[in-house]
Write a structure and sequence with these properties.
The chain is of the alpha/beta class. The protein is 39% helix and 14% strand.
């Protein structure tokens, strides 16, 4: 089948851009990474075939995403089928052609061939590829964040280092992981391992994560979808949001990992998604910081209006299993939201708040009146099974460092202060 998708204009336009990408990757790839990189090829005629009403073939998209994963973590996805590694420029050209076909057909499907599709697709393709160094860093820190999981000390490592449960229980790795994330250096964690004669455990743990943990992979899918949904004018390229394709990538992430991350959710790096297969949802206007640990939960919206309607999660926040945060909820840096907790409406917490399990915190609309906010000051501790609700027009203020006992029922006293309706 002949095609004009990859015509002379495209071939001429991509050459200098391939050189730019290769120059960037030359600076960040180790010799081992270069020798491990494998990009699965796709026949150009197949790439040029339209699927359905012109949108991309999802089976091909799976291959393209796997190839992009190889670009940020060489050797982690595709098996080596050749005795010697291919030339880096050839690999970038192959993945570039694949992405270009995906983007071209997405634009074509959305606007029925009107406008300069070729230039738009070329700029969007290489805008994405030129972000590979940043995407590679993000993927590395998302993998490192998984070392908070005690399960990285598996049976193999325990046997290798003759570690019993009492010894492991006496070691506190998570704070060192957080310190590394704040300092953007692995040194504090490596030093801590060295103090306990566990130096070589680090390399194995990273290998365990890269090989078997799903969280960093679905976050990488999201990074690609997010990048394609944004405008970008870097590197003398005029990149506009790509239609259709970001949502298709998010859908594949949901299919594989049951993590439904909207492509426009802003997500920082160094985040640990624990057991995402049990279900994780984010929304279009949501924001998640860096250094968070997030278990299966729902970060959803309440309003049908196109406005800020999803939660804002600060840095180093922990959200437990089956927690539900709905609406423009704000969770302050370093806070914890316990398992089975529901927080909804106009709720804001300060830094380092500790909200226990099975808590309900929400604003309640009374007739046509919009309720005031619920504001928890810094360091507030809320006990298990507590209910905090506000149905008045005044904000309900919980002073900083307050401790609310388990199974309390807190309402607004009519003056913005907390009133215990039931102890």
């Amino acid at each position: 089948m002949s095609t004009t998708l990859f015509d002379k204009t495209y071939e001429q336009g991509k050459r200098p851009l391939i050189k730019k990408v290769v120059t960037l990757l030359d600076e960040i790839y180790t010799p081992e990474e270069r020798s491990s990189l494998r990009i699965d090829p796709i026949n150009r005629d197949i790439l040029s075939q339209r699927s359905g009403r012109g949108f991309v073939n999802r089976d091909l998209l799976e291959t393209v995403l796997g190839n992009l994963l190889e670009c940020v973590a060489p050797g982690s996805h595709n098996a080596s089928t050749t005795a010697s590694p291919p030339d880096l420029a050839d690999s970038i050209e192959e993945i570039g052609d694949q992405i270009y076909a995906m983007i071209y057909q997405s634009i074509q499907a959305a606007q029925n061939g009107n406008g300069d599709i070729e230039t738009r697709a070329l700029h969007a393709t290489f805008s994405l590829l030129l972000q590979l160094p940043n995407l590679k860093r993000r993927a590395l820190w998302n993998r490192f964040a998984s070392l908070r999981d005690p399960a990285v000390w598996d049976a193999y490592l325990r046997h290798r280092f003759s570690l019993n449960q009492d010894t492991l229980s006496g070691l506190d790795f998570a704070p060192r992981v957080d310190t590394c994330i704040r300092e953007r250096s692995f040194t504090p964690y490596e030093d801590y391992l060295g103090q306990h004669n566990l130096d070589s455990a680090f390399a194995y743990q990273l290998q365990l994560v890269i090989s078997t943990y799903p969280g960093w992979r679905v976050l990488f899918y999201h990074d690609i979808a997010y990048a394609l949904s944004q405008s970008d004018t870097a590197h003398e390229l005029m990149c506009e949001p790509v239609p259709l394709l970001p949502r298709a990538i998010a859908e594949l992430g949901g299919r594989y990992y049951q993590a439904d991350l909207h492509p426009e959710t802003q997500i920082g790096d160094a985040n640990f998604l624990e057991h995402p297969h049990r279900g994780l949802t984010t929304g279009q206007t949501g924001i998640i910081g860096s250094g968070c640990s997030i278990y299966p939960c729902t970060l959803g919206g309440l309003s049908e209006k196109a406005r800020q309607r999803h939660p804002f999660i600060g840095d180093f926040v922990k959200i437990g299993t089956d927690a539900t945060l709905l609406g423009p909820v704000t969770i302050g840096e370093g806070s914890t939201v316990g398992s089975g907790t529901d927080i909804y409406g106009f709720v804001e917490t300060g830094k380092e708040c500790q909200i226990a399990s099975s808590v309900v915190i929400g604003t309640v609309r009374s007739g046509d009146r919009a309720p005031g906010r619920i504001r928890l000051g810094h360091g507030v501790r809320v006990g298990d099974g507590t209910i905090i609700e506000n149905s008045t027009e005044l904000d309900l203020i919980i002073p900083k460092q307050s401790e609310i006992p388990a199974r309390s029922h807190v309402i607004n006293d009519g003056f913005g202060n907390a009133k215990y309706a039931r102890e």
